[in-house]
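A favour, since you know our structure tokens better than I do. Could you add the entry underneath, on a fresh line?
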Amino acid sequence: MAKAYDSNNIFARILRGEIPCKKVHETPYSLAFHDINPLAPTHVLVIPKGAYVDMDDFTARASDAEIADLFRAVGDVAREQGVAEPGYRLLSNCGADAHQEVPHLHIHIFGGRHLGRMLDKG
């Protein structure tokens, strides 16, 4: 059963052009733009253009072309932003326990400095 998608979430509104974004990359199936509250010198979000709540929803329902495009876009953005060689972190929160704030799949690309440990032990 598909998860309920809120068509008024901020990323859906960005995709419709209702809210501006600082776009860095676009393909037929994905859009990448700078985060408005960056947590690293490079902080870009990559989102699918389709209505997918999270990674679970996306991998269950998206076409092979959409899946390949999104992950290719992530790599392209990392190289274009100059973080591929020194290293970068990807993050995609999925659901309440992961503290997903926007119910539209999004992949954060963090880079531009040493990022430290992934998670604190505990």
